[in-house]
Amino acid sequence: MELRHLRYLVAVADEQHVGRAAARLHVSPSPLSRQLHELEEELGTPFARARRARGIRTSEAGATFADDARAILSEVDRAVGQAAGGNARRGRASAIGFVESGSFAGLIPTIVGALRHRHPGVTLELQPLTNDELRLALRARRITAALTFGLF
Length: 152
Known about the structure:
This protein is of the alpha/beta class. It has seven helices and five strands; from the N terminus they run αααββαβααβαβ.
């Protein structure tokens, strides 16, 4: 499971419509539906109680999982912001490692833009790394935060 799956589910749960959720996420509806279906298969439960042309109804499991996903995504945003904010208070740069596939999904530019907006005094140093390199760089404290989409 990847962070984008959580973002996708939250958007669909909020919008109760795949097309509107896709527009909000800047993706096409078909791949979004496919990703949600894969997530449902992975977890073994449907997230939509009824799918119809005018939208969907989130199942109880889908609504519960969306609430949990919101909390997880909020914590990720908090951690990234804290890393950047702590460096802003100390007048340092934040080194953020990321997997390059994140730039294709649009998440990296979104997160970096939000960090720069919240903490304009922070210098962000972006480092494209593999998952293994991210893990090692975090342990060695060469990067402040890691953004990954695969298994870590």
